[in-house]
# Entry
Amino acid sequence: MPRSMLHSVLPGFIAVAVFSAVLTAQSSPPGPSTAQAAAQAPAAAAPAPAKDDYWRKHDEQVLTDFAWLARFRDDDSKLAPPAPGESRVVFMGDSITEGWHFTGPDGSFPGKPYINRGISGQTSPQMLVRFRQDVIDLKPKVVVILAGTNDIAGNTGPMTLEASENNLASMADLATANGIKVVLCSVLPAADFWWHKGLEPAEKIVALNTWIKSYAAEKRYIYVDFLSAMKDEHDGLPPSLSQDGVHPKPAGYAVMTPLVEAGIVKALAQ
# Structure
């Protein structure tokens, strides 16, 4: 709430609160004495634990640099243009993308000119803001977009599925306008979010994926269906593929890698 609005509302709020307290005191029977009340009162609740350091930093980041443009700004500026004949691919996403190791002994895409631009915790509006800097300006031939989990989790506030759809469509349309082929990935299955429990996301994930698949077909984008290949009987991510029900472990990425590689090949052939 704006500070000016708070100043205008606060006096009225205080007045109502005081008036309510007076009415309660007048209409309630006499209570126990102070000593009796103290004896009968439950023990004071323990202070709430300090906010997890990760989320404290996340909230600070959202306030100071909503899309975290600073995260890859230097890396982007130092990246050389694609070499002649190079089939550069940029992956845009959240922690599921960030945790996907591309190179090294355990990398999924050794020797491939693939660039990881995943940022943990991000939602589709944040990705849309940094899409030009972290994707278009890198001049890839293909962009792989994997987004939506944190939208449904409400990491930057409650979002409708339509809002997520609009952001995904905007990223895909921006890529197309700049001659970049698009691979749209399904949101991974999840029966619950460990950092925001009780949202029952499975049904929303299925609905968003239904739209992504339909939109990809309409626009002739490539659709990669991770959900069908990874879900369990509850439309969640099974322990064999994930330790926390959201983020893939190596076995999960082993399922994803050939699927996205096939999508990239199709996109390059368009």
Observations:
- The longest strand covers residues 89-93.
- The beta strands are 89-93, 114-118, 142-146, 181-185, 222-224.
- Confidence is low (pLDDT under 50) at residues 1-48.
